[in-house]
């Protein structure tokens, strides 16, 4: 509340001078304020009520009120308004003319990435899901403008930056320094009479304690607890006694189904496990190589304690017991028979998910991971066999969206998420290599849809730097769906499995397909034609390179 400096009368809110209308006349000095009694004091008011305070504010009266400040204030506000309008006009013009793509005039691109984090301390108190907040794009972007030519410019920029560079493979000693415990547990040689890589390891635990009490899979999953409840009951029956010591048979997988998600890996897994010579881990997808060994249980929950390699090996104990039964049978001992049982593992993240590297390994100068999953698998299993199931990356991405999106799913929403993800990917490609962007955890968590999973050739080339081409079988879901008998025979031959009876083969090849699209997702219909055209353009150079590497034009996916 404001008062006249002479008579303490309330001033109107719009009075800019310090005197009321009664004090502006020639006789204002003859008036006495009823409150301060002519002493020119102003009492302190709060919420229009006089406060009972001992102190009052002393105000010196000024009999000469100037209007110069008032006019200066008006001129300043007018200039500020005009300047603000000019700035706003320039900003709007830059967005309209450029689509906020290159950040012309006054605004930098909201999707421009800064330096890559080089160590975990840069991400303190943040989970993997929280990192998406760092790269939330501005709402005014091309993803809300369903304009094919505009998005095509982004794709052209990405295409111009694509370079398939050969990565430098790390040495064995470098790998040992990164994972010393893993190398102390897994031997370099395996049993000669087992087709599957197995070995005997001394069991140093107390025979009265629970051998799976500390297994992380059992602690965090009810499903695994049921499996380990059974293993506890039979564990002691499978210990091998030699010279007063106890030994247990340990095994690694003979083959891995490494990818890709939403490409039919579940169906292949369900059919393969029906073969009498094939066993799998306790769960289809342990995700140990890509996530659990780094302490990632669910991506949104951040990091937990790392799962040791012993916990991973426990998942193959049930299969190891069956292999041990063959090795210790009378027939095998007399005739030196070999166990033909092989173990598989089908984590669909193994091929592509190297997102955790930046938190555990020293960063390289180019932002590329110095170690990949395949480096460690090859170090222990140079003869491992790998199966990859792929599908048209355009359809894979839509299926991935329908499966993982939680709410508001629609063809229009998918289009917007695709456009937004393309912008983010382009921003990264302007500053970093293709490999650095593909394996960039922050970018991958920021993109609303997983565009990078469909860049098959980038991952395949990195696996081929470690494994020979004849150790990798690449299949297409489209071929598997149209001629399942043929693809399953390819797999049997690749794994060198024994012959099947007609009844067994019919059971494997005629079983209903697994993990098909949910009815509610099918009701949403196909993606928009514009979205499909955009994704076709984006994936085309990668599919072309993939077809060249595999010498098979079917991987161009021209007819799908």
Total count of strands? 12
Biggest β-sheet description? 5 strands, parallel
CATH topology category name of the domain at 172-399 and 471-516? Rossmann fold
Structural class: alpha/beta
**Span of the ends, CA to CA:** 75 Å
Give the uncertain stretches in residue-range form. 1-6, 8-22, 24-67, 98-145
Share in helix: 25-40%
Question: What is the gyration radius calculated from CA atoms?
Answer: 35 Å
Described by the principal axes of the CA atoms, the overall outline is globular
Individual helix count:
22
Strand content: 5-15%
Mean pLDDT: 80
Give the class-level CATH name of the domain at 172-399 and 471-516: Alpha Beta
**CATH architecture classification of the domain at 172-399 and 471-516:** 3-Layer(aba) Sandwich
The strand order across the widest sheet is 9-10-8-11-12
Nutshell version of this structure?
The protein contains 22 helices and 12 strands.
Give your account of this protein's structure:
One of its GO terms (biological process) is hexose biosynthetic process. Keywords: Membrane, Transferase, Transmembrane, Transmembrane helix. With 560 residues, the chain is of the alpha/beta class. The protein has a domain at 172-399 and 471-516: 3-Layer(aba) Sandwich (Rossmann fold), CATH 3.40.50. Helices cover 39% and strands 8% of the residues. The protein contains 22 helices and twelve strands. It has helices at residues 68-98, 148-160, 172-178, 180-185, 216-220, 222-234, 265-272, 309-314, 317-327, 330-335, 357-360, 373-380, 393-404, 411-429, 434-438, 441-446, 456-464, 477-482, 484-494, 502-510, 519-522, 529-550, and strands spanning 41-42, 45-46, 49-50, 57-58, 198-202, 240-242, 245-251, 255-259, 278-280, 342-345, 385-390, 472-476. The strands form four sheets. A five-stranded parallel sheet has the order 9-10-8-11-12. A three-stranded antiparallel sheet has the order 5-7-6. A hairpin with a 2-residue loop joins strand 2 (45-46) and strand 3 (49-50). Helix 2 runs parallel beside helix 14 (411-429), helix 2 (148-160) packs parallel to helix 22 and helix 17 (456-464) packs parallel to helix 22. The model is unreliable at 1-6, 8-22, 24-67 and 98-145 (pLDDT under 50).
